[in-house]
Each structure stands twice: as C-alpha cells, then as structure tokens.
Amino acid sequence: MADPADTELVALDTEALVAYLRGLLPIGPEAPTIALLHGGRSNLTYRVSGTAESWVVRRPPLGVVAPSANDMGREFTVLRGLTDSDVPVPEAIHLCEDVAVIGAPFLVMSFVEGTVVRSEADAARLGPAASDHARLLVEQLARLHAVDPSAVGLDEFGRPVGYLQRQVSRWWRQWEIVHTRDLEGIRELHHRLERNVPAESRASIVHGDYRIDNVLFDPDGTRITAVLDWEMSTLGDPLSDLATLLVYWDPICAPLLADGNPISGNPAFPSQDELVQLYADAAATDPGDMSFHLALAYFKSAVIAEGIHRRFVDGDTVGGDFARVGDGVEPLVAAGLERLGAGAR
C-alpha cells in the first residue's frame, strides 16, 4: 500500500489494537510492528506487520470531523462490493464500530504491494512512462464507472438522483463546520453552484477522491494493483470523479497534498484536456461541458483543505507537513469561481 514513513502512533492505542487483532489475524507470537503510513491527510492509516504478512488499519482523523465524512462503514461496504470486480481493491477483512476498542471505529484490510506516485521526485523517475501511468489511471476510472452497482450489491449504496445538488449543500455544510476564517469568495462560489446545478449525466459508483496518489501501480507500471481511500464513495454522477481527477492535476492543489503535486514533476503527463479525451475514449462517452463539475470539485477541495487546516490549528494532525495546507484554500476557491465564470447565474 505504501512504505511506512512515520512512526507517530499518538492516535492509536496499540496495545488495545493488537489484543483485538489477535482474535482476527494470524499475527504470530511476537508483537507486530505498527507504523503510520505516509500520505494520509484525513483518515489515519497504519501498517500492521506480523510474523509472515501485513495488514492495514484505518481510522478517522483526530479533531473536528464533519458528519458523513471519513466514514469507515462506507469504505468497508464498497471494498466488499468491489471484490472480484474490474476494480482492484484491498480485501476488506473486518469493520470494528465499537469506539471503546481504540477510541474510534476502524477497519482492517489487506496490505497490497505497489508503487505510489506521490511526489514530484516520484513522478520524475517515471520518465516518458508518466503518460502510460496517466492512461492507466483514467482507464481504471472508466472501468469503475462501468461497474453495475446492482451486480456487486451496491444498488442502495447512495441516491444518485439529486446527487449534484446534495453535493453543493453538503460541502457548504462542511465548510460551516470546519472553517477557521470567513472567505467571501467561497460564499460566492457556493451561490453560483447552487444556481447552476445541471442535470446528472448518469449514475455510477463514484470514488469521491480519485487521484494519482490514491492508486498503487505495479513496479513496471503496466497495471494498477489497487485503488485506495474509498471513504467518500457513493452512487452519483461519474463526471464528478473525472472533475476531481482534473482538479488534482492542477498545480494549485500542491498545498493540499502531503508531498506537493506530483504532476508538476514530469512533463510527460498529459494535460487536463488530454485527460478528458482519454476518459471519453475509455468510457465511450462525451463528457461535454465540465464547467460546473470542475467548479464543484475546486469547491470541495477548498473545503477539504480548510478542514485539514482546522485540524492543524487545533493540534489534531498526525505526521506530515500540514503548515501550508491553509494557504491553498483561497486559490482553490478562485479557480472554482473562474471555472463558472462571471456569466454564471
């Protein structure tokens, strides 16, 4: 899944966790090694290494968490549903909803080997193969959107009708919960989004946070071994996933990501417009005007960044460099306003 990058375990009662896991997993007689995995800006992710194999434990972040965000049960459900589908995911092993065990609900899943493209240095090492990695990323997204929810037991996983309108409302509610300052720009962006919600293009399973550092590639870069971080998944408009990918392709997202924006590290990555064409070819569909979807994705990313900044200000972040995340909020808002434009109602 990723290499351990930080051994801060302040958010984990390791003794209680190990005692609990011994009833579930073949850990072995020795105490397992537990390490915080690198990269997570929201849910905290740990590698638990026993005598012969490893597993992953995920729990919600510390501090203020908005309702419906960082949902362990949601992630567990979609991982179970996508097992044996055209979307490679870790095996969902166990969901613990008893907060008395470690102080929060958590899920246990298999550890998947693979390479993460997380930083500009990671991207630079790909050389010309960066274009192939981008193609794999987009083709995998199209395969996700082609999965029939009813065929994998996820037909009641969400409410696709009215999804876009609910997204606008939901992320504004989240802003009101997590914000640390008043930004007139985000109010204006919210109002423009409210007034310009289009009809949904169609319904599919959506990942909710699809980007290059949320997938694992095999060492030779010929396939994706796992798609990770499903806590925001639901049924909705697949163009929202495409827009999220496009927004994370934008260099202004660098403060939101743990190691900066990897896309800036390699000129072989295709442009945003080329990504749209790759998706159109893979999904055999014309995405059409993406203005609203992109504005919504910038809006959502701004709220996520503010939520991370709130946890940093409150002293509730674990591992990583969080000091610059708050600086990314206003540029994301400005980008959203630009996408909708002054002509929006």
Report on this structure.
With 345 residues, the protein is of the alpha+beta class. It has 10 helices and 10 strands. The protein has helices at 14-21, 72-82, 120-126, 130-146, 163-178, 184-195, 238-248, 272-283, 291-313, 329-340, and strands at 4-6, 33-37, 44-49, 54-59, 92-96, 106-110, 204-206, 215-217, 224-227, 234-236. The strands form 3 sheets. It has a 6-stranded antiparallel sheet, with helices on one face. A two-stranded antiparallel sheet has the order 7-10. A hairpin with a 6-residue loop joins strand 2 (33-37) and strand 3. Helix 5 (163-178) runs parallel beside helix 9, helix 6 packs parallel to helix 10 and helix 7 (238-248) crosses helix 9 (291-313). The model is unreliable at 1-7 (pLDDT under 50).
**Between the first and last Cα atoms, what is the distance in angstroms?**
44 Å
Instruction: Decide which structural class fits the backbone.
Output: alpha+beta
Helix amount: 25-40%
Quickly count the helices: 10
- Low confidence ranges: 1-7
| Neighbour order of strands in the largest sheet | 1-2-3-4-6-5
- Biggest sheet record: 6 strands, antiparallel
